Amino acid sequence: MKFMIVSDIHGSYADLKRVMEIYEEEKMDKLVLLGDLLYHGPRNPLPEGYQPQEVMKLLNAYKENIIAVRGNCDAEVDQMVLEFPMRGDYSELYLDGHRFFFTHGHLYDEEHLPMLKAGDVFMYGHIHKPVLKKENDITIFNPSSISLPKAGQKSFGIYENGELKIVSFDKKVLQSIKI
């Protein structure tokens, strides 16, 4: 299985549209959304191409392939317009002998990890910075933000065949690790 990991869209249709073009080009099986989908939040500036209704429509077109969690800027009203579950604080996927733990990062983060074991993969967003490392045989991953990165460039993640990558919009691999 090949899946894309996206975090912190914050209503940016222009950025989501580019990422979904790559999703199609790369023939992904699943789209993992790590929260903060439609709203920019009171601490953030409006991202370029801020169109939450268009983001909603584009995401809904992929509803059968989405695994999503709630971010700190996501609200109950967002679930009313999104046609896939997105209100859980975390989700899990078991694949290739690993447990992937997906969360936004405002409840669980590197300082407050959930109960994980060797071989698990902890994926979170929220900080808008890329992270890819192993600690105590646990892979820790943050793809950064596709709309409002706080370090580096806009990026997302790709997982395939035991390899996890942080990728830029021009499809350049910025970091990678075998899990």
Automatic annotation (TrEMBL):
Q: What class of enzyme is it?
A: hydrolase
Question: Entry's SUPFAM superfamilies?
Answer: Metallo-dependent phosphatases
Residue ranges of domain Calcineurin-like phosphoesterase in the record: 1-160
What cofactors does the UniProt entry give for this protein?
a divalent metal cation
GO terms (molecular function) for this protein are: hydrolase activity
Question: Which regions span the lipid bilayer?
Answer: none
In the Enzyme Commission scheme, what number(s) does this protein have?
3.1.4.-
Is Nucleotide-binding there in the keyword field? no
Organism's domain of life?
Bacteria
Q: Which UniProt keywords apply?
A: Hydrolase, Metal-binding
> What protein family is recorded?
Belongs to the metallophosphoesterase superfamily. YfcE family.
Q: Could you tell me what this protein is called?
A: Phosphoesterase
